[in-house]
Every structure is written in C-alpha cells, then in structure tokens.
Design brief:
The complex is a heterodimer of chains A (128) and B (228). Chain A is an alpha+beta fold and 128 residues long. In chain A, 21% of the residues lie in helices and 35% in strands. Chain A has 4 helices and 9 strands. The radius of gyration of chain A is 14 Å and the shape is globular. In chain A, 43% of the residues are buried. In chain B, helix 4 crosses helix 6. The longest helix of chain B has 18 residues. Chain B is globular, with a radius of gyration of 17 Å. The chains are: A alpha+beta (128), B alpha/beta (228).
Chain lengths: 128, 228
C-alpha cells in the first residue's frame, strides 16, 4: 500500500514501468457499502486523469470512478462482473478494476503518497 | 463549532416531467461541481412515470412498454442506482444536488440520511417506519415499502434521490416488481396512518419532508427560490 499513489477521489494507482493498475481504496469501499455492480470500460478506451471511466453501485447509489492517470485501458477485471464484492473484500488486490498503459508519468506528481492520503482521509472524516 | 451550511430549495410543482427533471439536475450538478451554486434541493411530483437504474433491470417490468404508454405512463432509463420503480401524483420526491465531499459523506452515509429523512417524516404522523434488512435500501413499515431511494454520485455531487408515498395510486406498482423485491407490498402514508388522522395537503407534507431533510443533514440556512 506504501508504493501506491492516491487521488483525492479515493482511487489508487500502482505503477510498474509503463503500465498501471487502478482500483478504489479501502476508505472508498467502506464508505460505499456493499458493491453489487461494477460498470467497466472496454479495453482500448482512453482515460484522462480526474475523469470518470466507470461506476460502482452500492446501497442504491451509483458512484462514478475517476482515473488517477491518463492513458489507454489495456485490461479490465472481468471477475468483477460475477463478483462485484471483490471490491469490498480485496480493494488493493483481487478487486483491482482496470489496467492502463500510461500516457505520461509526470501526472503522478499530482497524486498523493500513502502518508498524505491517510491524512486526507482523516480530515475528510472529521467533517461530520 | 457548527459550519454554516446553506441549501436552496426549488419547488418544481406537482406534474414535473421526468425528462425535464433529468435535464435540470444535470445542469445543477454541473453548476454545483464548479461551485457556481450552493447545495440545492428539488421538491416535486411527477406524472405517472416508470424508471430503471443503471443496471437496466427491465426484466422487472411485467408488461410491455406499449401497455405502460396506453396507461398514460412514461418509461425512462437512468444512471441512478437501484432497480425499477414508479413515480406519480401524490408521491413526494426530493432530488438533492449536493456536494458530499464538503460533508465528508460517502454513499452509504448519504443514503442512510435519506432513509432517516423519510423515517422522521412518517413519525410526524405516528407511523413507525424503519430501514430495510441488508440489501433492502429504502424505508419500510413492517414488510411494506413506503419510501424508495435511487441515487447517482458523480465527482462527489449527488442527483436523483428519494420518493415518499403520500397517497399515490398503488395499482401502478402492480405492473413491476418494485425495486426488484418480489414478495413485498408497497404502501403509503395514507394507508398507514390511524383512521382518525387526517392528512394535510401534499404541499404541507412536502414542506415537512424538506424540513426533515435539512435537519438531518445539518443545514443551518434554508433558502427558498421562487421559480420554475
């Protein structure tokens, strides 16, 4: 979890060379409730940092998922079609959502590291 | 110290067309995202309308679409969560367009607050409503559903919302499997109040629903907008 980067919309990205895996964080899945459906993009779709690429449904709410980086979708986790609950049970491993070929690694500078993200979550939760 | 929070109420009348409502919500959500407007709450009723959520569960509509049309109802596919439902006259609808990030609320807590809003309103009339079992989001009186929820959250901004049955024509629900739950009834406030309780006008009840919402979400400042 320490070598992941985080967006303020609670998605994580794990970069390995030119390729990145993306999912939602444990904080996100906890605040969503039980995920019953995941809307996945098609391989080949372009994604843009900060823009929506899919959605999850939980407790009668559909929530958009935003991409932490720009690039092209090369693989989607089709297991989520049968088992959307993987997002709750294993948000950083089996619940990964898409894999992307990165457009530019400069964008990673816009994201938070693990420590900053933890603090961000604390501040958000303190709001209510 | 309480952070001052403002919500602007827009009353859209009792026959607000569903497509018009969708367009308006899209515009408001976009404006809210760019901070051009404050949190906003639409209060309205729809003409007879069936709607589906993102999962497009149209297997839960029991008659062909042309038959719905001949009943004078429209059918809409939407991006909200939830299954199939019916909206119509005498059903109070609230569509909050609010920024959840400013509240630090997630989907689960937001939906819980929508449920509490309807539970609180029902209690004003002596009706004991409660949340459903797991996976049965909504508001129930015993085994009968009195309020439904279907929400969309995009960039932390909400749209769609809740529907509370004051006294709609419940026979419209016979043509669907409401919310995908087959063996449960739909009910209304009129059906659940004690015999001696006389319901006031829908307008008053809708105002009370708005107050319950504002209280549960902690809005300190409730502003009305004269409008259409």
């Amino acid at each position: 979890l320490k070598d992941l980067k985080y967006a303020d919309s609670h998605e994580w990205v794990k970069v390995e060379g030119n390729s990145a895996t993306i999912g939602i964080t444990d904080h996100a899945q906890d605040h969503l409730g039980d995920v019953v459906y995941v809307e996945l993009p098609e391989a080949g779709t372009e994604v843009t940092q900060g823009d929506s690429f899919g959605a999850v449904e939980s407790v009668k709410a559909t929530s958009d998922i935003n991409s932490p980086i720009s690039g092209k979708v090369v693989e989607v986790n089709s297991k989520l079609n049968e088992s959307p609950g993987l997002v709750n049970a294993s948000p950083y491993e089996n619940g990964w959502i898409i894999k992307v070929e990165i457009a530019t690694s400069d964008e990673l500078n816009n994201l938070m590291d693990s420590e900053k993200y933890s603090k961000f979550c604390e501040e958000e939760d303190a709001k209510h | 110290m309480r952070v001052p929070r403002t919500i602007e109420i827009r009353k859209m009348g009792n026959l607000f067309n569903y497509s018009d409502a969708l367009k308006l919500q899209e515009k408001l959500a976009s404006d809210r995202k760019m901070n051009k407007i404050t949190d906003t709450l639409l209060s309205l009723q729809h003409p007879p309308t069936y709607t589906l959520g993102k999962r497009r569960t149209d297997h839960n509509i029991l008659v062909p679409e042309c038959e719905l049309k001949s009943m004078g109802a429209e059918l809409h596919y939407t991006q909200r969560g939830g299954d199939v439902t019916f909206h119509g006259p005498r059903q109070a609808i609230l569509y909050p367009i609010i920024s959840l990030r400013e509240f630090g609320l997630g989907a689960r807590k937001y939906v819980e607050n929508l449920e509490l809003t309807m539970i609180e309103l029902a209690s004003l009339y002596g009706v004991k409503a409660s949340v459903g079992r797991k996976c049965e989001t909504g508001v129930w009186v015993g085994e009968r559903k009195i309020g439904a929820i279907g929400v969309r959250i995009s960039s932390g901004i909400t749209s769609h919302g809740l529907a509370f049955n004051i006294d709609p024509d419940l026979s419209y629900f016979k043509h669907i499997v409401p919310c995908g739950i087959a063996d449960k009834e739909v009910t209304s406030l009129q059906r659940e109040v004690k015999q001696e309780v006389l319901l006031p006008s829908d307008e008053l009840i809708q105002d009370q629903l708005i107050s319950c919402f504002a209280k549960i979400f902690g809005y300190t400042n409730v502003v009305s907008r004269n409008n259409s």
